[in-house]
Amino acid sequence: MAEIKIAINNKQEAIRNWVKKNRLEAILIAIIILVGAYLRLYRIDEYMTFLGDEGRDVIVVRKLLVDFDPILVGPGTSIGDMYLGPLYYYMMAPALLLANFSPVGPAVMIALLGILTIFLVWKITREWFGPAAAGLSALLYATAPIVIIYSRSSWNPNIMPFFALLCIYATWEIWQKHEWKWLIVLGISYAFVLQSHYLGLLLAPVIGFFWLLTYLKIKGKTHVVKEFLRKSFFGFGIFAILMSPLLIFDARHGWRNFSAIRRFFFERQTTVSARPWTALPKLWSIIEKITTRLLSGTYFLVGKFISIFFVLGFLLAVVRQVSLRLTNSTSQHRTVEKLTKDKFSSAAFLVLFVWIGVALIGLGVYKQEIYDHYYGFFFPAPFILFGGIIATLTETVKEKIFILRWLTYLIIFLAIFFLVLLNIRYSPLRYPPNRQLQRTEEVAQKIIDESSGREFNLAVIAERNYEGAYQYFLEMWGEPFVKIDPQRADDTITDQLFVVCELPQDKCDPTHDPKAEVANFGWSKIESQWAVSGTILFKLIHSQ
């Protein structure tokens, strides 16, 4: 215990000394983090997404907290009939409990994790490319509209950017610094990545590649290799323990999840191509889409220019690194600090190249629509790469003639200023909040008022929503909501069905809608209807 206190005190002292030495930089990163916090937390209860999936999640976690119902499996995937692990549900539990079972609690947890990711982007970029690049990357990440949207709602893919970046940093610490304790961090963080979305599998080749490089680097040192392998085994053991609930679930259900994953990646050629080279023709369009969605405030024309800048900038970085290698091998005047910095920059670009390269190929072999949250396992990568390219560009012109040097600095400043303005222009805070949570509560309360305390069934007619969100409040408030089970029709079909229609009124026809919850209720007629918070609520009874 005393050793832990000493370590904490030493760390606090080191932070205080760093702040004193880098006061201006500390103030700037503090401002960036505060801006990022504001953009994520401002009226979060009104801006957060709260639909069927979010309702389903809080229902499961509430049962864990109230009924002590253990969770062995997480949410299902939208395609492929696969299930994720339950880690995200266990992560939600403290936040939901502290918020007194309000769904806002887990959303705030996601926002705080997003704020922590801003800091991690800054820390890693600073270590790799210096303080100026770090401030730039953190500022763009803090204000990027798409990143903000996925940083303020409770949803399992939304934890991936933080844990994916933590995986990359752990890999860096292992490969470059031989800090074997980070193998444990890697095992833990990768379990969270894999249980947030199966696209996290694309991080496995990156981790494996640098693990192998590390082994080849130290293979001649027997004692070091033994320690490396021992900690690797320990880290993998923790990973396996965290993945074990999903394994237990799968074993108890005929390995349905494993079979679904195998079919999805190796048999369903309509979804994923097994031939990596088929991704090559798509790479440029994917790069444009990524830069547009993440770095240009969703403005496509600017995204195209950034894509070109990325390619040319990366080529410049490669040329510079090769030049530095040749210079370092012949120069006698370069300091140890400068040599270390050059080595770190070269290694950092290799990490980014492998990370982004695997991501591009993985997305390229996927044949379906690529949604924004699919980028979660490399959300921070383009921002860090952007900072690295800017740092390389400024280093390249540092010793050039005065006019060229300052003209380059001016162009960089104007470009960054323009990108930040674009982020502000398309910031989600400029649009009215969706108030999905409030609407759900108001509709649920109206159902309670009109049900007269008697049992009732529920159905939702919508394009992208289902009963989960409304069901959560009805169950939490102890109302006599009954879910229809066709195999137990006599026990589960009540004498009243409330139908929430979120479509335009001319498309709402609850008595003839083919949805299972309506069809299973049987022949019915509308007894009453109300307009509630932008929806139409129908009360149906059985027709005589």
UniProtKB/TrEMBL annotation:
<feature type="transmembrane region" description="Helical">
    <location>
        <begin position="299"/>
        <end position="319"/>
    </location>
</feature>
<feature type="transmembrane region" description="Helical">
    <location>
        <begin position="344"/>
        <end position="366"/>
    </location>
</feature>
<feature type="transmembrane region" description="Helical">
    <location>
        <begin position="88"/>
        <end position="121"/>
    </location>
</feature>
<feature type="transmembrane region" description="Helical">
    <location>
        <begin position="232"/>
        <end position="249"/>
    </location>
</feature>
<protein>
    <recommendedName>
        <fullName>Glycosyltransferase RgtA/B/C/D-like domain-containing protein</fullName>
    </recommendedName>
</protein>
<feature type="transmembrane region" description="Helical">
    <location>
        <begin position="157"/>
        <end position="175"/>
    </location>
</feature>
<keyword id="KW-0328">Glycosyltransferase</keyword>
<keyword id="KW-1003">Cell membrane</keyword>
<keyword id="KW-1133">Transmembrane helix</keyword>
<feature type="transmembrane region" description="Helical">
    <location>
        <begin position="373"/>
        <end position="394"/>
    </location>
</feature>
<dbReference type="InterPro" id="IPR038731">
    <property type="entry name" value="RgtA/B/C-like"/>
</dbReference>
<feature type="transmembrane region" description="Helical">
    <location>
        <begin position="406"/>
        <end position="426"/>
    </location>
</feature>
<dbReference type="InterPro" id="IPR050297">
    <property type="entry name" value="LipidA_mod_glycosyltrf_83"/>
</dbReference>
<feature type="transmembrane region" description="Helical">
    <location>
        <begin position="182"/>
        <end position="212"/>
    </location>
</feature>
<dbReference type="GO" id="GO:0016763">
    <property type="term" value="F:pentosyltransferase activity"/>
</dbReference>
<dbReference type="GO" id="GO:0005886">
    <property type="term" value="C:plasma membrane"/>
</dbReference>
<keyword id="KW-0472">Membrane</keyword>
<keyword id="KW-0812">Transmembrane</keyword>
<keyword id="KW-0808">Transferase</keyword>
<feature type="transmembrane region" description="Helical">
    <location>
        <begin position="128"/>
        <end position="151"/>
    </location>
</feature>
<feature type="domain" description="Glycosyltransferase RgtA/B/C/D-like">
    <location>
        <begin position="86"/>
        <end position="248"/>
    </location>
</feature>
<dbReference type="Pfam" id="PF13231">
    <property type="entry name" value="PMT_2"/>
</dbReference>
<feature type="transmembrane region" description="Helical">
    <location>
        <begin position="24"/>
        <end position="42"/>
    </location>
</feature>
<dbReference type="GO" id="GO:0009103">
    <property type="term" value="P:lipopolysaccharide biosynthetic process"/>
</dbReference>
